[in-house]
Specification:
Elements: E1 5-10, E2 15-20, H1 30-43, E3 51-56, H2 75-90, E4 96-100, E5 103-105, H3 106-114, E6 117-120, E7 125-127, H4 138-148, H5 150-159, E8 162-164, H6 165-171, E9 176-177, H7 181-193, H8 198-230, H9 235-245
Parallel strand pairs: 2-3, 3-4, 4-6, 5-7, 6-9
Antiparallel strand pairs: 1-2, 7-8
Length: about 260
């Protein structure tokens, strides 16, 4: 067990539960990303596994990524690590289920969207607020249109606003709303996945997601380059991040 990530088996070892363990914010920083990536990397070879459940300790799934790590001196390393985690989740050999409560924002929502199925509490709060800081959400720019369609994805990506779990279900961002999302995810795994052949399930997942994973890998490379080479060379992107850290209002110069 990592200091930031709880790791426990469930359903007689058929499911691996990974619990973000730095409440209340559960920030998706370099340490959390590394812990998730390592746990998933180790679990890939478990041939008895039928699902992974990612959940969180405390009232909130995640307030998002570390703003400090988005600054020019560290953002390349941060994005590379986060996008490697996203790729691992997208290509994981068995379904990755995500249970969301409270705030699920920014990098936290990007991690959730990299899962195969999202279970949300009805009063959860999901959004990509990066535009409030003068930056955009690279992984979400790829994943969100796939989940909820281009029009609604652009609404959230441009406005930075959040929506409830109930609205997120209506527009396709989450797969199921339940007051107990962890229990709902486990019930799905127990009823629909555990009775199946784990080896055949792996083949079904690989077959269903092959084209999707190829497209997402290419798109992640594109948006990462746009973020690092173009966005971070602008004055306003750095201003927005620095203003947030200084707890002051950003002064945009539109350049």
């Amino acid at each position: 067990m990592s200091d930031v990530l709880g790791i426990t088996p469930a359903l007689d070892g058929a499911v691996l539960r990974l619990r973000l363990n730095r409440p209340k914010a559960n920030i998706v920083d370099a340490e959390m990303i590394a812990a998730l990536d390592a746990a998933l990397g180790k679990a890939e070879g478990n041939t008895d596994l039928v699902a992974v459940l990612i959940e969180a300790e405390g009232p909130h799934f995640s307030f998002g990524a570390s703003v400090e790590e988005h600054l020019p001196d560290s953002c390349a390393e941060m994005l590379a690590a986060l996008h490697a985690l996203v790729r691992r989740m997208l290509e994981f050999p068995v379904p990755v289920l995500v249970a969301v409560r409270g705030q699920c924002l920014g990098g936290g929502l990007e991690v959730a969207m990299a899962g195969h199925r999202i279970y949300s509490a009805p009063d959860a709060n999901l959004g990509q607020p990066e535009m409030m800081l003068g930056v955009f959400a690279p992984a979400a720019s790829c994943l969100m249109p796939e989940r909820m369609g281009q029009t609604m994805a652009e609404d959230l990506l441009y406005s930075g606003r959040s929506i409830s779990g109930e609205e997120a279900e209506q527009v396709g961002l989450v797969d199921m709303v339940d007051p107990e999302p962890e229990a709902a995810a486990l019930a799905f795994a127990e009823t629909h996945l555990k009775p199946k052949s784990a080896s055949s399930l792996r083949m079904a997942v690989k077959s269903a997601r092959a084209d999707f994973c190829r497209r997402m890998a290419a798109r992640l490379d594109e948006v990462e380059a746009l973020y690092l080479n173009d966005l971070m060379s602008t004055r306003d992107a750095v201003e927005g991040l620095e203003a947030f850290l200084a707890k002051r209002k950003a002064k945009w110069e539109n350049r």
